[in-house]
Amino acid sequence: MNINKLKDELFQYVDDHSEDLIELCSRLIQFPSENPPGDTTDITNFIEDYLTESGLNIERYESNDKMFNLVATTGEKSMEYNNLIFCGHSDVVPAGDKSKWSFDPFSGEVKDGWLLGRGASDMKAGLGGLIFATALLSRKNIELPGCLTLAIVPDEETGGEFGVPWILEKDLIAGDGCLIAEPSSPQNPTIGQKGSYWFKLTTYGTPGHGSLSPLAGGNAIVDLIAAVQEIRKLWDIDITIPNEIRPLLKESKRYMQEVEKEREEFYPVLEHITVNIGKIEGGTKSNVIPEKCTVEIDCRLPFGITQDEVTEKISELLAPLNIDYEIERFGFKSNANYTPADDPVCKSITDNIEVVSGKEAYGVMQWASSDARHFRDYNIPVLQYGPAHLSTIHGYDERVRTEQIITCCKVYLGAAIDYLYTTK
Q1: Does the predicted TM-score (pTM) go above 0.85?
Q2: Which pick of 42, 142, 173, 415 has the fewest CB atoms within 10 Å?
Q3: Residue of 91, 176, 251, 398 marked catalytic
Q4: Choosing from 156, 176, 223, 291, which is the catalytic residue?
């Protein structure tokens, strides 16, 4: 098998049928699969029909009400050659106030070289590229020595448990490496993520007449304000970054200096615990001393500190306050995690980015979190690479360049061929 010739033929097919690829991505956007509420019924039906027409073996799993996972395979599971997982999520964050959009967020319109709509960057363009690539390998009857598994999950945007962690726990997918088509820079796949520590802090007071405060009762809101001030000190903790992570941090700083230049000022977030005070609820009315107040806080953890250690730090910070409180974890939960840049699945992506684009490619670290952590929990090396206009993700007027969608689809195909034709 002439691998390079095969890749060239597949790349040419993508160029010749690029309108079909863009149309597929456009159709995906037209399904408003907002999460919450998380209903992926219609988009799942569409994808399943598309993949079935391409001759793929497909299994459908409902992990929660109206949340559907699809698993499609082509090739044969191999003990000698690598087996690869393509992964993408079909849910998107809510569009929000549609009057603030310049276009219908669910139009999937293509205009002036842009694909427009909610999910264009996160991540229906990337998902469309994975679907198109997997279907193409099946339609062309490419005899893959390893197995390619396409996993499409319904529950990523809320940090939920009904997508990737659900199918991994039930042993519904397996592979030696994984590519997630999450948004990234064109030349810089994401090979590491910070950890996540989301929690609700609730303080309790003693209700009473507001006219007697602060001499009467215990004010839950006042106590919570004091607690928040202490928790914000997590940023100031001096954390020792492990030596094996320093090359990744160096490359990530280079990326912020040379590519996303406007992000260079944020480089310190890679080495500190970030603390976002996201939501506060408390009190009954202005003339009642509040008996309860709750704040939701999102912390992201660098390498060098664990979730358990953060829990201990929070307890130490709050102890001197002598307040009545409780903490409840929710949402994203993980320690910082990464895949080495020289792992074969990472190399297959960066090498093919360079082949397709003719430019240098290297992996970087993400200051947020993703489904990648779940694969690493199962010792599956993983990275993220997908088309995106990064500044529009989760915002109004989300969009992505159509040429970037085409480039990424070629990279997916080239990486799949290289990886699946590689012996373990």
Answers
A1: yes
A2: 42
A3: 91
A4: 156
